[in-house]
Amino acid sequence: MRISTKGRYGLRAMIDLALHQKDGYISLMSIANRQDLSMNYLENIFSSLKKAGLVVATAGLQGGYRLADEPGRITLQSILTALEGSLSVGGPGHTSEKTRFEDFLKREVWDPIDQNLDSLLKDVTLSDMLLEIGGQGLAQDCAAL
User: Fold this and answer.
1) Whole-prediction pTM value?
2) Rounded to whole angstroms, what are the CA distances from 57 to 41, 51, 85, 87?
3) Which CATH number fits domain 5-87+125-142: 2.30.38.10, 3.20.140.10, 1.10.10.10, 3.40.50.2300?
4) What is the per-residue pLDDT for 39?
């Protein structure tokens, strides 16, 4: 499995949003400036995040985005699934003429990897990430993601 640029940038943007949540609604321009990201790319990312119910938006002069829930309730799994779709390393299963070897690989290799990855991503929240990285200097640290 490879996380795309959309997933990596989206994760950076969500961490940035969590860091600044006390400031109210955050403009995409301010996130773009802090994270050195393209506004057009962020618009696409936030469209997916809004559709998944992870952020809420308001229009107008004081408009922008904010988290739809507490950072401790938003997992890496929910963010990456919203931006990447399926996170399975094994890919979609074959529906016809599955060989014993393919069945073995799915059962003994791909499924356990998927289960471990899913468990890890469900266990890590935005709040965990903020605590791990430390709130101070987070905007600079996010650029390394």
Assistant:
1) 0.83
2) 17, 11, 22, 26
3) 1.10.10.10
4) 93
